[in-house]
Design goal:
alpha+beta; Jelly Rolls; four-stranded antiparallel beta sheet; 31% strand
């Protein structure tokens, strides 16, 4: 009975983690860093999407992303990304820092939505690897991966919808402008031809 209570507790804790959401607003020339404590051979995976909190903004923003090891070494450095799905394997135990950077631009509403997931290394010789608790943790990890993918798709859909609506608006106003130009040109041609064929009499 004790194992069952522990298993239920672990499951509830995993569910609480599932409903958490990560969102950060980068200031102009700003940078935001977070960290995770990892053990050797653990895999840290981060998926993120860059957008804008302004629903009428159709521009696609870019950021820089990097992951730093406990010793200060840069394990991963990517520049000018509008989305990403990056992962690193921890070579040693310690605190791994990952940063989202808007330091090269003065854009004021760069919104980054991200999810943290990965693979916890399990030694096959460890007797704990064949327990119900481990199975629940593995299920939680897979569910987190599904949730992260869904969140990514939602953000991408929102960004693409804003771009499509902006494009439709531009096409609409360009069409209106073309109709006005054609109408003015037609009126001018009719007026000019009418004057051209007028018969003038000299008294």
């Amino acid at each position: 009975m004790k194992i069952t209570i522990q298993s239920v507790s672990v499951f509830l804790l995993c569910f609480i983690q599932l409903i958490s959401c990560h969102n950060v607003l980068l200031a102009p020339y700003g940078k935001q860093c977070f960290f995770e404590h990892l053990k050797k051979n653990d895999e840290l995976a981060i998926s993120f999407q860059v957008g804008s909190r302004n629903p009428h903004n159709h521009e696609q923003y870019n950021i820089d992303f990097n992951i730093i090891s406990p010793s200060g070494q840069i394990l991963l450095k990517k520049q000018a990304l509008d989305h990403g799905d990056e992962s690193v394997k921890a070579p040693v135990n310690g605190k791994y820092i990952y940063c989202f950077s808007n330091e090269r631009t003065n854009r004021v509403d760069v919104d980054v939505s991200f999810n943290i997931h990965g693979v916890v290394y399990v030694d096959i010789n460890d007797p704990k690897s064949d327990t119900l608790d481990y199975a629940i943790q593995r299920l939680s990890q897979l569910t987190n991966d599904v949730k992260a993918e869904q969140g990514y798709l939602v953000i991408r859909e929102r960004t693409h919808r804003n771009t499509a609506e902006s494009t439709n608006s531009r096409v609409k106003w360009w069409s209106v402008f073309q109709i006005i130009v054609v109408a003015v040109n037609s009126v001018f041609q009719i007026y000019y031809l009418k004057r051209f064929f007028e018969v003038k009499s000299v008294v």
